[in-house]
C-alpha cells in the first residue's frame, strides 16, 4: 500500500501488535519508514511479526513478549524499548479480550478477565509509557470498540471496559495535553478477516445481511483502521486530541441494531439448550 505519511526516524510502539487489526497498524507504520516495536503475550507471534515488519519496510523492528495485566512486566518492556530506540513518538494500545456471554451466565472471574485486559491493561500501558513519550509531539491511540458507547446484549463486560478506556483517553488528553501529548481513541467497525467479524457473521447469509446494514455497503479492511491511526499520529492531525473516531462506514449511526439483538437471541438459545 502506498502511503502519503512519512514516519522515518519516528519510534512507534504497538501493544497487541502481532495479530489482526493491530498487526496491520504496525505494518502500515513500518511501510511509512518508522522504527516499530510490538508487544503481545506470545513470543512466537512477536518473532514472526518482527520479521514481517522488517519486510514491510521498517527502519528497524523489535518485539517484546508481556501480558498487559502485569504492570511490572509492562514497565520493564517499555524500559527496554526506550533503551533501544529512545523516546516514543507514537503509541498504539490495542490489547483486548472478548467473548459473548449474558451477564446472568457469566462468572465474576470471567467479567474481571476482560476488565483486567481491556481496562487495567490500558492504564498499565499508559503509565508505563508516560516517562518515555516525546514531549511535545507524542501521539497515543487507544483501540476502542463500539461497546464503549453502544449497549450490546452479551457484552456487559466489554461495554464496561471499553467505556473506561475512552474515558481514560478523554481524561489523559487533558492531563497530558499540557505536555504536548495527544491522546485519541479509534473505534473499528466490522473489519473483514478478523476474529470479531467471524464470530458475528459465521455464515455467508449472516455476512450478507451484516454487509447490507453498513451504509457504505462493505466490510472494512484492516488498512482502513491503520490509515486512521497514521493520520491521527501525523502532523496533519496535530490539533486533534481527546477524540473517539469511528472507522465504521457509518454503521454505528444505527446503534447496536440487529447485530446486538442477534447476539442476545443466540446466547439465550444456547443458554436454554443447556437447561
Relevant terms:
275 residues, alpha/beta, Rossmann fold, seven-stranded parallel β-sheet, 9 helices, globular
What can you tell me about this protein's structure?
Helix 1 (20-31) crosses helix 8 (222-232), helix 3 packs parallel to helix 4 and helix 4 (108-129) runs parallel beside helix 5. The chain is globular, with a radius of gyration of 18 Å. The chain has nine helices and seven strands. Strands 3-2-1-4-5-6-7 form a seven-stranded parallel beta sheet, sandwiched between helices. The N and C termini lie far apart (51 Å). It has one domain (11-273): NAD(P)-binding Rossmann-like Domain (Rossmann fold), CATH 3.40.50.720. It is 46% helix and 13% strand. The model has no long low-confidence stretch (mean pLDDT 93). The chain has 275 residues and is α/β, with parallel strands linked by helices.
What secondary-structure arrangement, pairings included, does this model have?
Elements: E1 11-15, H1 20-31, E2 35-40, H2 43-56, E3 60-65, H3 71-85, E4 90-93, H4 108-129, E5 139-143, H5 156-175, E6 182-188, H6 195-200, H7 204-212, H8 222-232, E7 244-247, H9 257-273
Parallel strand pairs: 1-2, 1-4, 2-3, 4-5, 5-6, 6-7
Quote the average pLDDT.
Answer: 93
Q: Walk across the major sheet and give the strand order.
A: 3-2-1-4-5-6-7
Number of domains: 1
Assign a percent range to the helix content: 40-55%
CATH architecture assignment name: 3-Layer(aba) Sandwich
If you consult CATH, what is the topology? Rossmann fold
Distance between the termini: 51 Å
The named CATH superfamily: NAD(P)-binding Rossmann-like Domain
Radius of gyration: 18 Å
Low-confidence parts:
none
What kind of sheet is the major sheet? 7 strands, parallel
CATH class annotation: Alpha Beta
Along the chain, the helix and strand elements come as: EHEHEHEHEHEHHHEH
Fraction in beta strands? 5-15%
Using DSSP, what is the number of strands? 7
Judging from the principal axes of the Cα atoms, what is the shape? globular
How many H/I helices?
9
- SS-based class: alpha/beta
Amino acid at each position: 500500500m502506498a502511503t502519503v505519511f512519512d514516519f522515518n526516524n519516528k519510534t512507534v510502539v504497538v501493544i497487541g501488535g502481532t495479530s489482526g487489526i493491530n498487526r496491520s497498524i504496525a505494518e502500515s507504520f513500518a511501510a511509512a519508514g518508522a522504527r516499530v516495536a510490538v508487544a503481545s503475550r506470545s513470543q512466537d507471534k512477536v518473532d514472526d511479526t518482527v520479521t514481517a515488519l522488517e519486510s514491510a519496510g521498517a527502519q528497524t523492528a523489535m518485539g517484546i513478549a508481556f501480558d498487559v495485566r502485569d504492570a511490572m512486566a509492562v514497565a520493564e518492556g517499555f524500559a527496554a524499548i526506550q533503551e533501544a530506540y529512545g523516546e516514543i513518538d507514537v503509541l498504539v494500545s490495542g490489547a483486548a479480550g472478548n467473548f459473548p456471554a449474558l451477564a446472568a451466565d457469566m462468572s465474576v472471574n470471567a467479567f474481571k478477565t476482560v476488565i483486567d485486559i481491556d481496562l487495567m491493561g490500558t492504564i498499565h500501558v499508559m503509565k508505563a509509557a508516560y516517562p518515555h513519550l516525546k514531549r511535545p509531539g507524542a501521539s497515543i491511540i487507544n483501540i476502542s470498540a463500539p461497546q464503549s458507547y453502544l449497549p450490546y446484549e452479551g457484552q456487559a463486560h466489554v461495554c464496561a471496559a471499553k467505556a473506561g478506556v475512552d474515558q481514560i483517553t478523554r481524561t489523559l488528553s487533558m492531563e497530558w495535553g499540557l505536555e504536548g501529548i495527544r491522546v485519541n481513541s479509534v473505534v473499528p467497525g466490522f473489519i473483514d478477516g478478523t476474529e470479531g467479524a467471524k464470530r458475528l457473521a459465521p455464515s455467508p447469509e449472516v455476512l450478507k445481511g451484516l454487509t447490507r446494514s453498513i451504509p457504505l455497503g462493505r466490510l472494512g479492511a484492516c488498512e482502513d483502521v491503520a490509515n486512521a491511526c497514521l493520520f491521527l499520529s501525523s502532523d496533519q492531525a496535530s490539533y486533534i486530541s481527546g477524540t473517539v473516531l469511528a472507522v465504521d462506514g457509518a454503521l454505528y449511526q444505527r446503534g447496536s441494531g440487529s447485530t446486538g439483538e442477534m447476539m442476545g437471541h443466540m446466547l439465550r438459545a444456547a443458554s436454554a439448550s443447556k437447561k
